[in-house]
Amino acid sequence: MDVITGRGTPPGAPWPRTEAEARAVQDALRARVERADRAPAPGAPGALVTGVDVAYDDDRDAVAAAAVTLDAATLEVVEQATARARVVFPYVPGLLAFREIPAAADALSRLRQRPGLLVCDGYGLAHPKRFGLASHLGVLTGVPSIGVAKSPFLYRHGPVGEERGDGAPLLDGEEEVGRALRTRAGVKPVFVSVGHAVSLPAACAHVLALAPRYRLPETTRRADTLCRAALRAAP
DNA sequence: GCGACAG
DNA sequence: ATCTTGTCGC
Predict the structure, then answer these.
(1) What is the pLDDT of residues A172-194, one digit of tens each?
(2) Which of A44, A81, A146, A216 is in the most buried spot, having the most CB atoms within 10 Å?
(3) What is the main EC category here (predicted)?
(4) pLDDT value at position A3?
């Protein structure tokens, strides 16, 4: 698919190397997040949903990314791609995108079909600058995106019902920035936030449709397994 | 200034 | 993210 980042670097400007440069990029791109929902309906037959994940080996300075596209209705794999690269940015809370996107965009660019939705590991609008990894990847590709995280990051939430589908607002003070969503009865919830061109209710519906059995969406499970395999594949 | 902090 | 075995439970 077409990724305007080409091999992972935005056109015109080199990838940020310092925290200050990275924060400036977030400030510049945040206005490009679309609010209107143009993602396919959750579980829509034939709709394509792509999970993206990245694995690291800091000792070998290596990263591997994977993009796995599933049919939204059957959750079967339609196509998948991987990419390997060097670590270009350290992990800094709030700047995760600058560490993950170069390799992730490379893997995405190797997909033949453009998906209707991207599912990222981490957050979108639930971010200090309201521009987390999911929003960043959504804006760069133009594809609607959501973020599904495994921990609440900087945010708080009230009690979440014990049944699958129960949820509670993720709050930054008074502002709702996402949702703690139970995908499996009695299991720790996941933390969903809007990335780009998707509403929060729709994002939650997508997550539930993508996670019929396990805590995490099948998209992220598949992408996680694949990028780990790709990392150890080529020493 | 110090601690917390998606992956 | 990653270092790591067995074990409890559906």
Answers:
(1) 999 999 999 999 999 999 999 99
(2) A146
(3) hydrolase
(4) 75
Does residue A2 fall inside a structural domain? no
Q: Are A38 and A32 in contact (CB under 8 A)?
A: no
* C-beta neighbour count of A117 within 10 angstroms: 30
Is A11 within a domain? Answer: no
Q: Give me the CA A42–C1' B6 separation in Å, rounded.
A: 24
CA of A149 to C1' of C3 (A): 22
For residue A8, is it within any domain? no
Nucleotides of chain C touched by protein CB (<7 A):
1-2
Q: Which amino acid is at A120?
A: C
| Tokens of residue A72, six digits | 């939204």
Helix axes A96-109, A19-29, angle to 10 degrees: 60
Determine if strand B comes within 7 Å of the CB of A221: no
Provide the domain count of chain A: 1
Residue A137 resides in a domain: yes
Domain that holds residue A169: 19-233
A13 pLDDT band, cuts 50/70/90, is low
